[in-house]
Amino acid sequence: MSGWKTINKDRTSHIAGKMSVGFIGAGQLAHALVKGFAAAGVIATQRIMASSPDTDLPTVAGLRRMGANLTTSNKEVVNNSDVLFLAVKPHIIPFVLDEIGPVIEDRHLIVSCAAGVTISSIEKKLLQYRPCPKVMRCMTNTPVVVREGATVYATGTHAQVEDGKLLEQLMASVGFCTEVEEDLIDAVTGLSGSGPAYAFTALDALADGGVKMGLPRRLAVRLGAQALLGAAKMLLDSELHPGQLKDNVCSPGGATIHALHVMESGGFRSLLINAVEASCIRTRELQFLADQEKISPAAIKKTTLDKVLQQPGVTQGSGVNGKPGLSLRRNAPGPAKKT
Amino acid sequence: MGSFPLHFKMSVGFIGAGQLAHALVKGFTAAGVIATKRITASSPDTDLPTVSGLRRMGVTLTTSNKEVVQNSDVLFLAVKPHIIPFVLDEIGPDIEDRHLIVSCAAGVTISSIEKKLLQYRQFPKVMRCMTNTPVVVREGATVYATGTHAELEDGRLLEQLMASVGYCTEVEEDLIDAVTGLSGSGPAYAFLAVESLADGGVKMGLPRRLAVRLGAQALLGAAKMLLESDQHPGQLKDNVCSPGGATIHALHVMESGGFRSLLINAVEASCIRTRELQFLADQEKISPAAIKKTTLDKVLQQPGVGTGVGVRTGSGISLFNNTRPRNTK
User: Fold this and answer.
1) Residue A148 CA to chain centroid, in angstroms?
2) Is there a contact between B122 and B186 (Cβ–Cβ < 8 Å)?
3) Which of A117, A140, A268, A286 best tests the B interface by mutation, with the highest count of B CBs <10 A?
4) What is the ipTM of this complex?
5) Strands A21-24, A48-51: parallel, antiparallel or unpaired by DSSP?
6) What is the pTM of this model?
7) Which superkingdom does the taxonomy of this entry point to (chain B) (predicted)?
8) What CA–CA distance (Å, rounded) separates A327 from A331?
9) Contact between A118 and A145 (Cβ < 8 Å)
């Protein structure tokens, strides 16, 4: 693993230092990223702004405590940022793009973190407003909050090499970051996007095992997490195959090989392959549904919908298939068009 | 994990120069907690890759266990459990008041070690620890228990050494087998998991190197989140499962396959096997077939180790009466 280019995670960061960063959305992802960026010292929190319609979220309070600026206006975030993270749920993205499209400028780098939302779908929307929108897509994960995230990104049509370097510098301050072809991102979602959940489940179960054999719970949780962390670090620091590392800790007739046998007997490996596959497939499914471009009003809470409709430029109209829905393809007020 | 002025004056010895000794020395060196010239290790087999690794790090190597004892204050017993009785009989006469004996052998009880050493000294200072291989990257998990004649300061000393290479805490000795099942064997579970996750990534289109990297990074990050959080692992899991999203779909297939149960089984199996090995060792009969003839010859050449009849009927090496051969049926 030592062949990977390592970007310095220390506090000197010239490129990102003068930039302002905005987050559309102030939920788990925005909170985790801001916490990581702040710990890394890669950007001052006063240069960060985040928007959310719901000011009661615990993550909103957390962001405020960290010194980020909060607002209910997406447009205000756009106006105050250079790098703009779209950190909302995938089905909200089209709304957001129609709303902020008119206020995007040349300097803006739009970075979508939404699972399953393609660069081309974002560019398609923004091209209604600008000739050359700079779009990137990334898939990260929650351990950015402790600066051990796993992030991949893909670069859109009009984003430049420097834009990629900028994003990479930001994301490398909070963990591993590398560029990939866009068509790999769904698989990455299945692996490292969802990966922490697999680990939390495993850690809960390992602790249960320890408690069954007599350990107090806190100690069992601590030892289980430490064992996983240490093993992962060994693997990242080593050129050896995981199977070789496994062999090295299985002494003949010993306790560990006995344990491995029961795991293999239960199809342990297969369950993890299944998990990665299921998450990846579901991501592709969500992407397909989104591409159909019909958002049922039932998918969005009435209170949120009201707030969005109050923003200039968003109207209610017919869905693509002639059923009632929100039309997000044309945001200028006008007669609804049936297809 | 800063500097440790206490240890500059201590010498550390390892009986055994295999994976464990190598990993510990590598970690101690990286931590700067002790200079390698103050470390001695012994092994009958000078061809082991770990032996050359230790030599490269500046450790003094020898084939004589007694030499290690004479050159150390803290003495790690880093050999396989069934070798421990041999070693104790051999070094027993050379142990002095200053020595702190730390056994890392799975399933070997403090009382069995003290019983042997009491033949040579009144108050042997013995401790027992269970660690794991990630000490090599300074992220080990270590627990230790303190023997009858070891003092509080001895515990602190060991804790300071082991804390330089990861997490370290004292426990009651009767928990150590369970710790073996959990964090002793734990890294193997993790290596298996990363390989499988990578297979999943490759199945869905990722190149292998990237898949291994992302899988390991995801596990590392999650473990670190848990260690730094007060929240329950189940709460952390909830936080990353968005409604109808990809992750909860994945979790369902894992639960359907009994994923959690497999890990409980693993911890249990490792713990039970550890207890089994301890039981076999306590029976105090080592068949000569358990030790290679070449190794046995070398040991028998050392003064103080004799052949005799095993405690039960049947031939074997008697390790409990080494002053003179004795025939008992």
Assistant:
1) 14
2) no
3) A268
4) 0.86
5) parallel
6) 0.85
7) Eukaryota
8) 8
9) no
